[in-house]
Structures are given as structure tokens and as C-alpha cells.
Amino acid sequence: PLSGLHIAQLIKEAGFPAGVVNVIPGYGPTAGGAIVRHPGIDKVAFTGSTEVGKLIQAQAAPTLKRVTLELGGKSPNIILKDADIAQAVEIAHFGLFFNMGQCCCAGSRVMVEESIYDEFVERSVERAKKRVVGDPFKGNTEQGPQIDEEQMGKILGYVGSGQSEGANLLTGGKRHGDTGYFIEPTIFSDVTDEMKICQEEIFGPVLSIQKFSTIDEAVARANKNSYGLAAAVHTRDIGKAVQVSNALRAGTVWINCYNVLGNQAPFGGYKMSGIGREGGEYGLENYTEVKTVITAIPQKNS
Length: 302
Fold this sequence. Notes:
By secondary structure, this protein is an alpha/beta fold. The chain is 35% helix and 16% strand.
């Protein structure tokens, strides 16, 4: 909230006319609900959970206002056997643990071709163990706390679920320290598709690593999920990269990278990951209306 209020102050200092940008502090059910239901507001954009996105769409229905939603994800990160393993490990590490895993497009489901699976898992665990968790204001810190105690509890609940359903906890899985809402970088192997940690958005520093045999299998399993916000593929073969990126049902697919974003590129999800796009020409279209004007001409001029 403080960031939003500070931006509002900067907007005022920059000389924007009054009313062009309005910041309304408040909670979702009250301030947010009033915005969604108000008949004088034509368009609502929301970034957050799929659960809340459904509520917003339902509450906006009586006024038929336009709604765009950028919601949750369970993004698959596919590592083919010809990939640069060292690079793929580091990118996959960043793709999930960035911002403590609190990222809508976090690559929380890493799928590795079976011939390099063991090596990839071993290197990933080594990297996670080196991750520096602590005070986010210190220069060497890589991972700070989760947003609040409730979210920390949810994440640890998912860790318990993974263990009870048979996934192999390789590192982490516990609260880090006894002060603040810190969680150890956590990695599971031997994760199957039906497990909760593979199906549901955790929104925390918990990485699931799976094994696959063929590209077709990987794509089919990656697409067999209710989300479709983002995905990635790592390979040295451009033909395979194009094949996989075309087949994945996700709004953004990265090739040999992750979390690379630009305002000129549309961003948004398939399926339960949302409606509409942010960024690029597609993003602007959400804020425009098409009008047709037909004029009768009494006399022909040609």
C-alpha cells in the first residue's frame, strides 16, 4: 500500500491533472467491491488469485462492465536433454525462487527429460542450499520473508501435503529461524501429476521436479492443468523449441530464459489464469471501444 501511495504523490508532483489518476486505499471486499459494482466505472483490471478473480467477474456481471484478469499459475518449465544443464539449473532456480516464490508466473513445476534428471536434481538441490535467506535490506540476501503469517502457514501446509502424498523432500521444508515469516528454499523430487503440489498454486519457495520420457509426453502433461499463465522450454535445438512453444497452452512461453518481460509484449493467461492481456497493442484494446458512425448523404457527389 505504501508504494501505491508514494506513486500517487509522485503523480501529483509531476503535475497530472486532478482526477486522471486516483488511488483508493482499502480492503478488497469494501473498496475493491465498490469499484467492481459501481455503474459509473466501465472497466476493471485485477491481478491476483483465481479465487478472487471469479468473485470480481461475478460482481461485475450486473453492470456488464469489461473485466480483465491476470490470475494464478502453475507454470511448467521443461528441460530437454540437450539443454545447457548449468544454465537451466540457474534459470529454473530464479524462475521459482524469485520474490520468495510469490509470483503469478513462477516456474514451480520443473519437468526434466529422464536421461539428465538425476544430475539436474542434484545440481538444483546444491543451488537451493546456497541460497541466502534473511533480511531483504542486506545486499547479499537472495530471499526475504513471505508476505504474512497466513501465507507462510499455507506454504508449510503444502509442504506437508507433498510429504504425505509421497513426494521426496530433498531440502528445506521448514520455517527459517524463529522470527519473521521466512521459509527455507524447498525442493521435492518424484512428484506425480495428481499431487496437490503439482496441481495447485503454492505462491511460495517450493519447487517440484518431475521426470518425463518424450517431448509429446511432457507437453501433454504440462497442458493437463487448470492454469495456463506461462511456461518455458530449455534446449539447444530451435526446432524442438518451436515445437514445444507452439504446443504449450500458456500465454507466455520462454525459450532458454524465464521471467523476461517487456511492456511491448502482451502478458496474460489461458484457462483459469485469466482473461485478456496486459502490455502491447492487445493491452490497449481492453481500454477502447469501437464505434461505427453511418451518415446519410442526400445527394450523390460522383
